[in-house]
Amino acid sequence: MGQIELTGDVYYPSPETIANANLKDRSEFDKRAEQDYEGFWADFANELDWFQKWDKVIDDSEKPFYKWFTGGRTNISYNCLDRHVKTYRRNKLALIWEGEDGEHRTMSYFRLHNDVCRFANLLKSMAVKKGDRVTIYMGRTPEIIIAMLACARIGAVHSVVYGGFSVESLTERIEDSQSRVLIVADGAYQRGKIVKLKDIADEALQRAGTVEHVIVVKRTGQDVYMEPGRDMWYHELNKLPIANQPCVVEETSSEDPLFILYTSGTTGKPKAILHTHGGYMVGTYVTTKYYLDVQDADRIWCTADPGWITGHSYIVYGPLLNGATIFMYEGAPYHPYPNRWWQMIEKYGINILYTAPTAIRGFMRFGDSWANRHDLSSLRILGSVGEPINPEAWKWYHRVIGRERCPVIDTWWQTETGMHMISPFPTMPLKPGSGSLPFPGVKMEVVDEQGNPVKANEEGYLIIKTPWPAMVRTIFNDPQRMVDQYWTKYPGAYMTGDSAKIDEDGYIWVIGRVDDVIKVSGYRLGTAEIESAFVSHHAVAEAAAIGVPHEIKGNAIYAYIILKQNLQPSDELIEELRKHIAHEVGPIAKPEHIEFVDKLPKTRSGKIMRRVLKAQAMGEDPGNISTLEE
Ligand code: WT7
């Protein structure tokens, strides 16, 4: 690959990187995918276990509701655990975990499998059946992984709600999914404090009525309310003989739902993105193996939370499918000191670190010395995800953390894509800030409003023109919304909601969202959720939220508020509103700025013109305002 002449700022792989990589030369994959796309994916699928092989790799008879590996029967939890327990891997560590308080635990594949079977038996004893939704609301402890895999084992559909979300976000997600069972922790440690998850859940359960059973996992140990007949401690249930029975795995079909995960869209409530056992399994297996280059002896640390797609795919499923060792850390990055992460990389010999640009920028401000005092030589691959990585942060990550030995794998993807879609393989030349090329065989374009490809280095809308195995199957409860949202604007193509440029070498540079999604510290939030939380406060008549650039967070939330008549703006009210948002949506949605106004710029049809607000917040010219009402 060294011979290719690329333009601009280019980093070439070292001979060591090439010698060690799972995939030496991507052109093998490109060729195979070009000749026989379905056969290319079937080969990967054949590396995993199936109770029954598929009849068809891609079924496009009802597109955009594509199906993959139809007729096949498999189970992702079986492939993550049982498949390895039958081999030498039974005694291998599946998981190393460290709590924020320094406590640590390890689990072999044998042990994890055992705990998953026991948990699955408990769910079955609560009459959880195939297809039933189970909501999981916990911090980063081993039980969240056990609970997810237990659901998958019996064909139940997990709906993990990020532990940083709060009452209204949790209520909405429980209600929409109609979960009968909630799995919750008493609390989680964050920056030395306890987040009282069970209290938040109790409040949500007063608003949402579907839940009959609550399994409570003890982590922080403070007193919690336990409702008789509804709430039970996990450690007590786990002692019951029923937990100890054999747990036969559900032989799910490829297209049986595995999980739903709520994500913010352009309008209205968050959407429940649905993924399935077969295609999602193959997609996460392959991308973990070749992009993150996970190998048998590797310890991989994906710093995301299991409550987001990154955690689903690259903390839990992808690494376990590959038989690797997961590392998971409970707490905040800079707690108690900014060397906490580097200390753990040294202590546990982490080989692959996969994190977000916002975290990297956060570390940069503390300087190089915190990292420099640690031996980081175990690291082989550095990954980035969640938002565009600015070249400055890329270079710092490469130099200070990777010591110029480790390729930076900048992976672009989404909750909806389930798996990495644009990324360099470790052996490719890298350009800081670009995710390079789409997965072999996947065609992507950058187009204008009409769907015509734009010229090199011109900005346009990023679309995907080829189906891929982990693609979103539907929006749970609202299939029409999936068609309208992703598949209507450009017929036959999937609309990502991002803008991008493609350079003269074909490298893709993702710029950011073109819809009403705001990426705050890599977290995906919708203006609609924030605004509706504002107006649920008694003082607020109307609200508009926008994202403005922020040095560390990427974007920060700027909110414009119209107060109800006769109410006066004050600093106390600003503080109260910020607390209200944290209580309803979650601390991540706390606005950076709140400004009180008398009017909001609207179109004649009443739609808030966020573009005008953004220009105002940034002191820029609002451009064309001919559609403005007044
Ligand atoms: C949006 C999807 C995919 C896992 C985490 C986020 C942005 C994600 C990158 C990247 C530039 C990125 C996009 C995308 N994004 N990764 N490497 N470079 N932008 O999943 O919460 O569904 O958000 O995150 O804007 O559309 P998500």
Descriptive tags:
7-stranded mixed β-sheet, 28 strands, alpha/beta, 22% strand, 8-stranded mixed β-sheet, 630 residues
Describe this structure as you would to a colleague:
The structure is a single chain. This protein is 30% helix and 22% strand. The mean pLDDT is 96. The protein is built from 20 helices and 28 strands. It has 630 residues and is of the alpha/beta class. The strands form 7 sheets. An 8-stranded mixed beta sheet has the order 11-10-7-5-6-12-13-21, with helices on both faces. A hairpin with a 7-residue loop joins strand 12 and strand 13.
Strand content: 15-25%
Give the strand order, joined by hyphens, for the main sheet.
11-10-7-5-6-12-13-21
Q: Please report the distance between the alpha carbons of the first and last residues.
A: 58 Å
Shape: globular
The biggest sheet amounts to: 8 strands, mixed
The percent of residues in helical segments reads 25-40%
Counting DSSP H or I runs of 4 or more residues, the number of helices is: 20
Please, what is the oligomeric state?
Answer: single chain
- Compute the number of strand runs: 28
Rg (C-alpha, Å): 24 Å
The unique ligands bound to this protein are: 5'-O-[(S)-butoxy(hydroxy)phosphoryl]adenosine
Enumerate the spans where pLDDT stays under 50 for 5 or more consecutive residues. none
How confident overall, as mean pLDDT? 96
SS-derived structural category: alpha/beta
How are the SSEs ordered, and which strands pair?
Blueprint: H1 15-20, H2 26-35, H3 37-45, E1 56-59, E2 67-70, H4 76-80, H5 82-85, E3 93-98, E4 104-108, H6 109-125, E5 133-137, H7 142-153, E6 157-160, H8 167-177, E7 181-185, E8 188-190, E9 193-195, H9 197-207, E10 213-217, E11 231-233, H10 234-237, E12 257-263, E13 271-276, H11 277-290, E14 299-302, H12 309-321, E15 325-329, H13 340-348, E16 352-355, H14 357-364, H15 369-372, E17 381-385, H16 391-401, E18 408-411, E19 444-447, E20 460-464, E21 474-475, H17 479-486, E22 494-502, E23 508-513, E24 517-520, E25 523-526, H18 527-535, E26 540-550, E27 554-563, H19 571-584, E28 593-596, H20 610-617
Parallel strand pairs: 3-15, 5-6, 5-7, 6-12, 7-10, 10-11, 14-15, 14-16, 16-17, 17-18, 27-28
Antiparallel strand pairs: 1-2, 3-4, 8-9, 12-13, 13-21, 19-20, 20-22, 22-23, 24-25, 26-27
The structure holds 5'-O-[(S)-butoxy(hydroxy)phosphoryl]adenosine.
